Amino acid sequence: MIRLPGFGGQSSAGGQPAKPGVCAALDLGSSKITCFISRNEETATGTRPRVIGVGHQPARGIRAGAVVDMDQARDSIRTAVERAERMAGLAVSAATVTLTAGKIQSVRVQVEAPLSAREVTDRDLKRALDAALAEADAADRVVLHAFPMGWTVDDHAGVDDPRGMFGRKLGVVVHVVTAAAGPLRNLLNCIEASHLDLKGVVVTPYASALAALSEDEMQMGATLIDMGAGATSAAVFSDGALLHVDAVPLGGAHVTKDVARGLSTPLVSAERIKILYGSALDSPDDDREMIETPPVAGESDRMMSQPRSLLNAIIRPRLEETFELLRDRLEAGGAGRASERRLVLTGGAAQLPGTCEVAARVFGRQARIAWPEGAAGLGDAVSGPGFSAAAGVILRESKGAAEAISGPPRVGAPGGRKFAAAEGQRRSIWRWLAESF
C-alpha cells in the first residue's frame, strides 16, 4: 500500500532530509526520466520556485508513459532522483509525477442540488461537487483532477461565488480528468519500489501548459500540445480554465522508427540522423545534399549515401498523421471549437525543424514553440521544451493546485479503492473551498 505522502528521511544520495517548501517533480517519459527538486523563494512579486536539483536519465522500462518493465523503470527513476538529490544537497521521500498513459479522458459533468430557498453555504458547494464526482465515477477509472467551471443559482449562470445567495437550486459544471486504473496502479507500484511516496499525479499536457502558456493565452484560449517520444498529448484552455485533455500514442520515437525503416539504418543512427539533418520542410538543396547512413548489421559493411529529400519525405507524413489524429480526437471530444485558437507546441519532439509549420497547417491556426517559464534556476541544458512538464509540476506545487481535488489517487485493492478515494476527495474539496473563495 502507498504510504502517506511527505518529505523527510534519508536517501542513498546521503543528503539531508527535505525541508518545508521543497518539492520534487518526476516526469516519466518514454525517452527520458527527469527529476526536478525546487525550493520556494520570496521575491518582490511574491513566492516563486527555484530549481536546486536536476537529474535526468534515459528511460528504460517505460513505453508511451506506461511501465512495461518494473525493475528497469525503478532503476531509471532511482538514478534520476539520486542525481537531483546530490545536486540539491538534500533528500526527498515524496514526488509528484506526470502521467500520459492510462488513456486519459475528459468528462464534463453538470449537476443540480436543491436549496430549499435558503442561503448557499460551503456545505452546499461541497455537496454539489461530491455529486459531480459521484456521477463521473466509473469502473476501472481513477479521478485525477476535477475543475469546477461554473456555478448557477436557479436560472442565473456565470456565478463566480454562490455563497450567500438565495435560491432553490444550486448547479455546477465540473471538468473531470480520469485515467485507467491498471496502468496507474503499475506506475504507483513502481514509484513505491523506488522508495518514494506519491504526493500527487498530474496529467502531462496540463503540467506542461502551466510552464509553457502565458496567462493571456490561457484567458484568450489556446491549445497546448506536448510532443513526447511515445505519445503526443493536448490540453485546451479558455477563459483561464482547462476545458479538455487528450492524447494519441504517437510521438518522436515513431518518427525515428520510420527513418530507420526508410533508410535501412539502425535505430541509434536513425535518431542521430533525424536530429542532425531531419526536417518536415522542403528546401531547394534537399535533392543534392547527401546523407551518409550506416547499414543495418548483416546487410553490408559500407556506408550508404541517400538524399536529404528522402529523409524529409519520411518525417513529414508521420507528423501530419500525429496532428491529424489529435485534431480529430479533440473535435470528437467536443473541444474542436475551443481549440480553434492559438496553438502552442512543447516537448522534446517539438524541436524537430518544421514541426511547428506542419502543426499550423493541420490545425489551421498560428503556432509557436514554447519553453518552460516561471521557475528560476533552470540551466541551459534543462530549459528546453523537453523539460516543460517537470517545470510545470514545480510551478503547480509552488502556487497550489487549482483543482477541487488533488493529491495521490487511491488505486489499491478494488474493494477499498472507492472508499479511500472518497475520503481523500472530501478532504481535498474542503481545502479547495477554503483556498478558492
TrEMBL record:
Q: What is its main location?
A: membrane
* Topological relation to the membrane, as annotated: Peripheral membrane protein
Where is this gene product found? Cell membrane
InterPro entries for this protein? ATPase_NBD, Cell_div_FtsA, FtsA/MreB, SHS2_FtsA
Alphabetically ordered keywords of this record: Cell cycle, Cell division, Cell membrane, Membrane
Tell me, what is an example of a GO biological process annotation in this record? cell division
Domain SHS2 as annotated: residue spans: 23-212
Describe the protein's quaternary organization and the partners it interacts with. Self-interacts. Interacts with FtsZ.
PANTHER family in UniProt:
CELL DIVISION PROTEIN FTSA, CELL DIVISION PROTEIN FTSA-RELATED
What job does the chain carry out?
Cell division protein that is involved in the assembly of the Z ring. May serve as a membrane anchor for the Z ring.
Q: Which family does it belong to?
A: Belongs to the FtsA/MreB family.
What is the protein named?
Cell division protein FtsA
